[in-house]
Structure formats: structure tokens, C-alpha cells
Amino acid sequence: NKPRSKKRRPTFRRLLKTSGVKLENKLKNRQLKQNVSAKKQRKEQKRLRQAVKGAVAALPPRPLETYCPRPGERKDTFEEEDFLESLPTDMLEDDDLQLMSSMAQRASFITRDLSSCAPVHSGKKRGSEVTKDYEKLPRKMARIEQKEVIHLLPIKDKTGLIPQSIQKRESPNATSSNCLEEDDEDAAEQEDQLENEGAAESMEGLTAEEREQRRAQKIQEKKLRIAALGSAVISDPISNVKRVKELRGMLMEADPSVAVTVRKLVMVSLMEIFKDVAPTYRIRPLTEDEKTTKVKKETQQLREFEEILVSQYKFYLEDLEQIIKDWKQQKKKRRQAVNLQSYGGLAAVAVRCLTELLLALPHFNFHNNIIVLLVPLMNDADRQVSDMCCDAFRKLFVQDKLGAASLATVRVISGLVKSLSYSVRPEVLQTLLSLRIREVKKDIEATKPTKKFMNYQEKKKNLSRMQRKWKKAEEKLDKELLEAEASENKEHKLKLHTETLNMVFLVYFRILKKAHRSALLPAVLEGLANFAHLINLEFFDDLLNVLQNLIQSGDLSNQESLHCIQTVFTILSGQGDVLNIDPLTFYQHLYRMLPRLHAGASNDDVIIVLRCLDTMLTRRKKQVTLQRAMAFVKRLSTLSLHLLPDASVGILAATRAALHSFPKCDFLLDNEIQGSGFYLPELDDPEHCNAQNTALWELHTLQRHYHPVVRLFAAHLSRGAPSEGSAALNVELSRRAPVELFRDYSLKDMTFNPPVDKPPTKKKVIKSNAPQRWWRKIKFFNLSNFFSFFSENLADVLRCFCVCVCACVCVFQDHFVVGDSLLDAELQKHIDKVLHTHTQTQL
Question: Would 115 be classed as within a structural domain?
Fold first, then answer.
């Protein structure tokens, strides 16, 4: 018996599998060999072309004429003697021999210039004009025709490679077409110049009215042309996308009378076309394999449409950028039809188009290029352009749901602030307040990408063979489903928001560290107050120390100090609960700043105060003492007396929330006194001002306020702010926050809310038996009656006026009484006569 071989026989499936693998390997090897051979062949052809070019370049230039050197310059006397001996001197006479010897020393007929017909020795004649060679040259160099050479395969010899080439024969049609093209270009340039000159000359000979009519006619023609091209593109974009190039060519309008108007119309029209035609995805360039593969006719048309659309969109953006650069540099180009004064209007329209494309096409190509172009314009000296860009980025931050565009914008803004050494406008940083960031990854390790798939060792250690197979199939299926879902992952969105917020805090902390005295500090403090709940715990201690030092320095305004306080308490009410910090100094700062609010100041600080009170008293009610709460309630009620109605409503609503959070504060509604001492309203420490020894008498005064909502809140608070019963507020007022009430009853639009009732149409007539004075009888129904009475009785009126000035005026209730003792009988009769005639004329 033969020993059994240890090698297992392959099964039929394995044989089929290995045969397929072998076939694939053979096919790969064959393709690899073909690629290698093709590569070698290309290298040899390249080397051969280089050798041919080198050989042609190495050939010495062949001169048209060769000149022999003079015998006297290089031949010695022995050579001259040999030359003379070689001559047949026995057949020549002495004179001929001397002539031949002299001719031998000069240029012979073989070496002279055959192109000249003049004799050799003609220049030696006396009195003849000698012309130099450079004078014979033409004024203009003749055009040398460069003939095209076709390189052939070289011939290999013992000496080496001999290059071979022939000249390409040009057909007469080609030469004539080249000449015609050059002539057409020259003719086109001349026509443009002639048209501009002719238009200028024709406009000079017209009157102002005719010029305006001619201009309006041209503009109407251009409008019709723009409308025709735009409607053609929008109706069938795939077929008529090439019309965009024709429309873009109208941006170079050369007619000075309509150039500015036409260019503005073309810019706006192209902007609307791209907004309508652009797809809802980013167009990527095709790879080499995709270009070579055969596709359907519809697919090929779509590819051509996308390629042309992207190229024309790129050119359009470059044109807008160039218009803005010309405006910034105040640079007028040669043959430019637009004046320097008109650059501002063109640049404003270009910026408007870019902002519209920024908001309408955030998913399309070149969106980051638009961001890079518009962010520096946020700090522009032109107020209109700067506000336009800032508003556009605010809208972009609000509508950006994914966060990619916001991250790109914040990065560019950070670079701009750093490059300009923090000397930017505050509006640039105020745009960051519109960022839609509600949640971020606070841990540094959480931002790192997690392992999605197990490595080989983990799979082998934990799972069996069948389980690994199923696990691999599940991972592949999950990956395909994630790609087919076409929706952004939540983790990816959180990652983008985290990076954006890190960039924002980097800008803020740089300014606090290096430029804390700049004009950007209010915007920085407002931004920190807005995003304070998202700050990492690692920065809390340093940030609190910096803010406390800023407040204690005394260099901040009221609004800046309020922003610092709001930032501190926003931090402490969020993640800062774990910190054992008693912010008593910040309570004292806010308590000291409350009397600075009044009706003469702006109401912008009231919103910040209401937010601070919400975080300091309502949310942190467990960390606030009763003495501190009573002091704030008393100062808020005093503050509501000298504020505008909308601010008074908000402050009273905050007082109501404090009374609900601290029920024992209702002791302030009684006249009894607890403890010893008196209330010290001028003391800035809420803990030691003895607020328990006073009462809220301000509520009784506010019940007679002219605003109905203020009267309602004052009556509600004076009864203890009950939640039920007759003294309770209605649902609309009780469920609203103080900030919402302040905004609802705002006086920003200079309107009274709620509106004032109209006065009654019928006036009440009060009958009185008291004798009426003479001045009460004068009734002027309109201004014309007044002037007629004044002009007719001027002397009488002046006399009465002089008497009244000298009269004794006594104040009695709400009207003045003139003493009758100073009026004599004659004057009294005269006044009665004037009044009687006036009443008769009225009747």
C-alpha cells in the first residue's frame, strides 16, 4: 500500500475558483506587459524626437556667401612667391604681371558679393558717393515666413543618427485664410474705433433731448436682447447653455452712453439665470476613465451642459471680482468705456449679485471662493457695501443647517481679524451672534473619530468564523445604506459645530488677551454672553478672573459691564454648577448699576438686565439669600418709576418672578418693620442695606400710571402677585417672560401699545351764568379769519396789546383774568364796538 499523501486533493469548487483566479492573473499580466511595452515605445519616441531636435540645432548655419581671407593677412612671403611662380610669367609683360600680382592681393571675383551689379573697384573713384550697407536695408523688416518642418525617421549610420526632415507644403487656401484672419482682426479693431468715434461725433451734434432719446432707444434694444438670451437659456438650459457666453460678452459693452446701465442689467440677469439653472449638487470634474467610457447620448449631453455651466459660472465670478478690484484700486483700463465715478455703482451691483449667489447656491461650486471674496468687504469703508455683506452672512448663518458654510466663513473671518491686527469694524464680529450652534462635543476625546470597524485581531479573538463573515456583510451593508441615505450624519454635524465654536472662541480670547482696549470689546463680551453655555470647563477660572478684572478697572461702559455679568452667570447656571464659587461681587456690580437706567437712556440695556435677573435670581434661587432678594425687589420697584412704559412692564414682570421665587418677600407689602436699623437706599451692598425695613410704596404710585399694562401689573403686585383669583393676571400676561413682554410693548416704532382710544366726536358744552370777558368772545374759526381780523383792526389790536402788557395778571385756577380797573370807559366801549363789528361780519 502506498502511503497516503498529506496534501489534500482540491475540490471541484476550489479548482473552479483557482482557474478563475489564474485567468484573472493572466489577463492582468497581459495588460501589464502591454502597458510596459507602450510606455517603452513612448519613451523611445520621445528620445528620438529629442535627438532629432538636437541634431537640427547642432547643424552650423550655412552662409549665403563665403569670403576668402586676404592673402596678405594669413600667407607669408613663401606662399606669395609660390603664387607668383605658378603664374605663366613668360607669356605676360611686365605691366600685366604687376597688375595680376596686385589683383591677387585683393578680393577676387569669386569672393566678391555677386548680388551687387557695381564693379569691384568702383568705390575707389574720386567724387563717387559711397553708400553704406545699413543704408541699403529697408525701413521695415520683411516678414520672414517660417515654414513648417516635418521630421522623418532618422537614418542610422556608423557615425551615428542622421536626421531626416522635409518642408510641409502649404495649400494656397491655408495661406489665404491666415491672411484673411489677420485682416479681419485688424478690420474689427478699426471698426470698433470708428464706431466709438462715430458715435461720439454723432452724439456731439445732437441736442440734450435727442441724446436722451437716442440713449433710451439703445437701452431698450439692449434690454430686449438680454431678455431674449435669458429666456432662451431658462426655457431649455441643456440646449441653449452656450447663450450664456454670448450674454456674458455684453459685460464688455463699449458704448459710453449705455455701458454702465447695460453692464448692471447683464450682471443681474446672469445672476438670476445661474440661480435658476444651477443644479442642487456640486459638479465634479470627470476622471480619465469616465471620459473614455462610452455613455448614452442623454448622459453625454448632460456632461457637456455641466462642463459649460461650471466654466461660464467661473468666468462670471471672475468678472465680478475684477469689477470690485477695479473699484478698490480706482484703476481705469485702456479703452475703457466706464468712468471712474461709475465704478462705485458697478461694484455695488457686483457685490449684490455675489451676496445673492452666496445665499442661493451654498451647495454649488466656488462657494468658498465667494466667501473669501466677500469677507474682506465686511470691513470696507463704504457703509453700503459693508452692511450688504454683513447682512448676507447673517442670513447665511441662520439658514445653514449643516455647518460647513458657517465653518468656512468663520475661518476666513478669524484670518481677517488676525491679519489686520484686530482693527476691524465691530459689525464683523457681531455677525457671529447669528450662528446656529445649540450643541457641541464638549470633551476633547469625543471629537476624535471613533473606530467604526474592528481590526483583524479583535475579530479573530472575539468572533467565530461564521460570525466574522456575517459581521463583515453587515458592515458593508451599513456603509452602503449610509451612502444611499444622502443625509448628513449627526456626529458629522456636531463635529462641524464644535470646530466652528472653537474658531469663534479663539477670536474672542485673542482679543481679550491682546486688544482688550479696542472697539471690539463690546462685541466680544456680547458673543461670550451668547455662547457662554457652550464654553469648556477648562476655561472657566481664567475667564472669570479676566471678566472680574475688566469690571473692576472701570474702563467699561454700562452695556459692556452688563455683558460681563451676563457671561459670568450664564456660565455658572450651566456647567458651572459644579464649581463652588460665590459671585457676590457680580451681584454688587449689578445692584450698583441698576439706578443708571432711566428714560433718557437707550432701552437696549434693559434686555440685558432682564436676562441677568433671570439667571441671578430665578435660576439660582437656592444660592441667593433672602436679604439679597428683598434688596433687589425693592430696587426694581424703584427703578420702574423712572423708565419708559415698555421697560417698566419688563421690570415689573421680573419683580413678579422674584416674588414667586422668594415667597417671603411679600413682607415688603406690609408697613411693619423687622429687626433694627433703617433702609439705606444709597448703599451698594444688597446684603447690608436693610431692605426688610422698607415697603414697596412705589406700587401704589404706579397704579395711577398712564399705561394700562403698567397699572395692571402694579395692582397685581400690590396684592401679593396671586396666581388665582380676581387679582390674578390673565393668561397672556402671566405666561410670558419679562423679555417677551418688553418686546411686545416696545416703543421702538414710536407707537403706543395698546393704541389710545379716539376722543369722542361730540364735545360737551358747559353752560355757565358767569359774565364772559371780552377776550373770551373772540372766536377764530380758521386762520383766514384771524388774518383778516388782524389786518382790518391793526390799530385797535395794537392798542389792546399795549394795555394788556401793562395789565395786572392774576392766576386763578386754569385761566388768566385781566384787571378791569386798568381799562377806562372809552377803551371798553371801543373794544366792544370792534367785537360787535367782527361778529356781524361772521354772521
Answer: no
